[in-house]
């Protein structure tokens, strides 16, 4: 159904409103070159999305909302879900026409998002409200509200969607919820300030921002397996503030952004051995990997730029300007 550009349809649901948004977007480029991959970067302070090609050239800048942060791509619909923290909502952004499509409202302090495609569910951590919200993407209905400790950040799910993991920074806890009935299963006590979560096979990797390490837990019995402590020469432990974690397609190699240490680290995920520390910009947090596995995009939040690393040589090849305070990056094929 077509709606004129001057109209809007609001669908009220029991717990959330979905607003169909129309072209109110500032685009700095009419067309984007056909490329193998595109990096989409959310910028907290400038409130926009920056589109870059695979070699770090900006192709579009789109003003979106107040404080865009976490993002997740729904590949089957080619949509990008963007948490707008200061607006208290999540925007569904159409990647085909680069326009907002829907607004998921009443999500205070929206921080990180995750999508479980087979069940068509959207998971949002609400940083200021000490909870996470589970939504049905098709209807917009809230399926569950999951209480957490203060400042929930990362959220991750097992492949079958049967378990939900949510990191609470201030509480030092990873909350484990049943993904079917949404009942609490367990609380995992972690090191200081758990931030991001990533699952590799039956392993849950958790970054400890104030603990200078990544902790690894078994997703079946929820017991701690191991940890990787970061200690590059010349740095104090309090300077090592890991946040984002990313695996390559094989799951054999991990990348961790080390925050205040201004480095990213490459890890042999099988042997759990550190392979190399690479100097990047100031306070790297967000990470993105091109589909061919050859280029790593590292967002530097305090230098307002992205460092692109050639993973064949394990060396930076380019630094490109982003918007102000880049937060998250999604690589779109």
Fold and architecture overview:
The protein has strands spanning 10-12, 17-20, 38-43, 48-53, 58-63, 68-74, 79-84, 89-94, 99-104, 110-116, 121-126, 131-136, 142-147, 152-157, 163-168, 173-178, 184-189, 194-200, 203-208, 213-218, 224-229, 245-247, 253-257, 263-268, 273-279, 284-289, 295-300, 305-310, 315-321, 326-332. The chain is globular and about 50 Å long. The model is unreliable at 1-35 (pLDDT under 50). With 333 residues, the protein is mostly beta strands.
Low-confidence stretches: 1-35
Instruction: Please report the number of helical segments.
Output: 0
Radius of gyration: 19 Å
Spatially, the strands of the biggest sheet line up as 1-2-9-8-7-6
- Beta-strand portion reads over 45%
Question: Quick recap of the structure?
Answer:
This protein has 333 residues and is mostly beta strands.
Defining traits:
333 residues, 6-stranded antiparallel beta sheet, 4-stranded antiparallel beta sheet, 0% helix, 53% strand, globular
Map the helices and strands.
Elements: E1 10-12, E2 17-20, E3 38-43, E4 48-53, E5 58-63, E6 68-74, E7 79-84, E8 89-94, E9 99-104, E10 110-116, E11 121-126, E12 131-136, E13 142-147, E14 152-157, E15 163-168, E16 173-178, E17 184-189, E18 194-200, E19 203-208, E20 213-218, E21 224-229, E22 245-247, E23 253-257, E24 263-268, E25 273-279, E26 284-289, E27 295-300, E28 305-310, E29 315-321, E30 326-332
Antiparallel strand pairs: 1-2, 2-9, 3-4, 3-30, 4-5, 6-7, 7-8, 8-9, 10-11, 11-12, 12-13, 14-15, 15-16, 16-17, 18-19, 19-20, 20-21, 22-23, 23-24, 24-25, 26-27, 27-28, 28-29
